[in-house]
Amino acid sequence: MKKSFSLLLILLLMLIASPAQAADAGATPNNLFNDGLAVSDGQNAYYAAYDGIYRTPLAGGTATLVVSPQKNLGFTDFDPTVVLTNGFSYLNVSDDSLYFYFEPAYAYNQYAGIYRHDLTTGQTKLLVNNHSIDYLRAQNGLITYGVYDNQHVSFRQINPDGSGDRALGLSIPGYAGSFLVE
User: Fold this and answer.
1) Cα separation of 117 and 106, whole Å?
2) Is 138 helix (H, G, I), strand (E, B) or coil?
3) At 31, is the secondary structure helix, strand, or coil?
4) Could you tell me if 157 and 142 are in contact, meaning their C-beta atoms sit under 8 angstroms apart?
């Protein structure tokens, strides 16, 4: 089942993004159209599943678990049937790093937030601890994200290491998923 899903995902990613486009834009153009559940860096497809984030070579091959709540996030009592709200989303690939949002149930807020996973070293770091992220884009050495407060989405930026958190002064009504924010 997982292998057939991987092959279908690879085919869909090949149709919606060229390798050059993915590499130039941090793989975010295609991510905006699929709620960030799948993204490509031009060589690999990354996709969110209930138990983690997987990587599959675009040339074909076996899917490999890259990020799991237990191994990479320190979530030792992880049970996807109990603790997940939305799980993994807003995947972005930029500069050999995978950026994503992880949203467990409210009782596990300490794990909710934006993460950076170094694809070279395998190290994962929590950049922003927040349970209300509604937008994430990694591009040009900056991470732009939106925080939803039940009425508006306010946009902020951080550096790839999580430092320099600053408000952008932009707030829109509703959910950021309704808009293409450039």
Assistant:
1) 23
2) strand
3) helix
4) yes
Element (H, E) at 80: helix 80-83
At 83 the three-state DSSP class reads helix
> 146 - beta bridge partners?
135, 155
Q: Terminus-to-terminus CA distance in the chain, angstroms?
A: 36
Radius of gyration of the chain (CA): 15
The number of beta carbons lying within 10 Å of the beta carbon of residue 169 is 8
Residue 134 pLDDT > 60, yes or no? Answer: yes
List pLDDT tens digits, range 25-55. Answer: 444 444 555 567 899 999 999 999 878 999 9
- Catalogue the E-assigned strands of the chain: 38-40, 44-49, 52-57, 64-67, 84-94, 97-104, 113-118, 124-129, 133-139, 142-148, 152-158, 166-173
Residue at 41: amino acid letter: D
